[in-house]
Amino acid sequence: MKTICLVISLLSFFIYRPYVIQRSGMIYEGDDRQYLAHATSLAFGQFPSYTLEGNTSPAFAYSWGPGLLAAPFVWLFSWLDRWDGNPIVLNRGLGDVKTSWAAFGFVMATQFYFLLGILFLFLAVSHTGSHSEAAILFISVASAGVLLYVYRRPVFAHIYEFCSVSFAIWLLCQVLPLSGLQNSSLSLGWMVLASFSIYLTRYNNLPVAYAFLYSFVMAKAGYKPTQVTKVIQDRRISVKLFLMTFIFAALVYSVHILGSRAVVDEKILPVISRKTTMLFLLTNRGIRFYIERTVHILFGLDWGLLYTAPLALIGLAGYWRWPGTAYFAAPLLALVVNLYICLCWGTQASWYGYRYLLFALLPLSTLGMALFLNQKVVDNRRWFYALAMLAILSLIPAFLFEGNSTTLTLHNAEEGWINNQYLVMVWKTVMTHPQDAMIILLKGGPLYLVYLFAAAFGKTAMLPAEVLVRYPVFELKVVFKSVLIWIFPSVFAWLSAPWIKRSMETSS
């Protein structure tokens, strides 16, 4: 785990850009403000009223989970705003929120839940063999621009989705009826909590959430998920499954009830609708449409999965002939809903990669990759090095994303923010303008260190205009925030070490 956190710290030094947090707090227009509104309404004691959360009238079109999970961090850092007399204490206008400590609390919460998700995966896959760290680095760190959602767009839902699915995988692995693995004392309540969190972070993950709960109950009872007839005949287990289903359904319905009573601009808004669950996509497009979209998602030159997340697909091969595969079949099949959303949405959903699918898929692929790496065919180290190279190639498009305002970013088109030639532009930059690629790579931590060194000696006037545009004034709080972001993975590794040791001793 220490190696994983060290690699994450190193990569964050290049991906995270301090000038962005100085300008906007890493809050993008649109979805981010709504997720933050959930957290700030709780942190400042206004929930269920949203009247002081700025222009957030459609807030309940966005899932509660991220704001709820981030709220303790937002509350903790908001005390710095209260102490400083920041206007957001009374009204969360967008201009004040962007540079507030409360918003930074959401940034740190996202980093914490990402590392917590990595920890759950580490504990889940550690029993599969000696390649658990490599599996996590190959997929959950290198694939699909995951780190962009941690260090560039943290005020978003997907890292919380990733953590929730990872938590469910860890719980399910503990009750698998395999030799030496089953923990019969693990409470069903933990999986109810994990499943509810999967749903609450992304409402369209309801099938995935229940699939984990169902598989957990069956595994704990010693049945395979396909043995429905035997479960019906076993009154004790059938009652338990019904009870867990009822509790889960009650929790889901409570979100609807609570959301319908939340006040947004003195109006009552429902939380669950065709929009929030994406049911409006349930229309017949014709078989040709689905074939063309599937081909595009796999091979498209924008964010084709074979180029941006090839190991996420290869990792699924690890489930082949594994005794525990039957218990993960239901969650994997439930991802068809997420794939369907990607097919019908028409684009990659206005940021990096096919985010509606990948953040629920990646934790499952990571477990599969750990299994795959420990199959006999991969005893050949050349396979291992080939997979490592694919991981690096997956990282390069993420490193260059938002490298400029023209070719290496998104374009506004009639169907949304897209760039159908993004990958072409990435490799064109790398091959024909390597100096530009290097400049983009150094925009984060290295550029900021140069600026800090110049500021310390009063030589900022000698810096190029490109630097001064990004850092027009020196802000001490940006230094503090940046250092905290960079060192946090190492701090997390140190704090989690005792828990990892106890977990390893218990499982052995």
Could you explain the architecture of this structure?
- The protein is an all-alpha fold and about 500 residues long.
- About 65% of the residues lie in helices and about 0% in strands.
- The strands form 2 sheets. Strands 1-2 form a two-stranded antiparallel sheet.
- Strand 1 and strand 2 form a beta hairpin.
- Helix 4 packs across helix 6 (about 100-125) and helix 11 (about 205-220) runs antiparallel to helix 17 (about 325-345).
- Mean pLDDT is about 85; it is low at about 265-270.
Q: Structural class, judged by helices and strands?
A: mainly alpha
Identify the strand order in the major beta sheet.
1-2
The proportion of strand residues reads: under 5%
Please identify the oligomeric state: single chain
User: What's the story with the biggest beta sheet?
Assistant: 2 strands, antiparallel
Order of helices and strands: HHHHHHHHHHHHHEEHHHHHHEEHHHHH
Helix content, binned percent: 55-70%
Low-confidence stretches: 266-271
Distance between the termini: 18 Å
What is the overall pLDDT average? 84
Strand tally is 4
Query: What is the CA-atom radius of gyration, in angstroms?
Result: 23 Å
Molecular shape: globular
Number of helices: 24
Write the SSE topology:
Blueprint (H helix, E strand, L loop, with lengths): L1 H14 L2 H7 L6 H13 L21 H20 L9 H5 L2 H25 L6 H10 L6 H4 L6 H17 L13 H14 L4 H16 L6 H6 L1 H26 L2 E2 L2 E2 L18 H13 L5 H4 L1 H5 L10 H21 L9 H19 L7 H20 L10 E3 L2 E3 L3 H11 L1 H8 L3 H12 L8 H6 L5 H32 L1
Antiparallel strand pairs: 1-2, 3-4
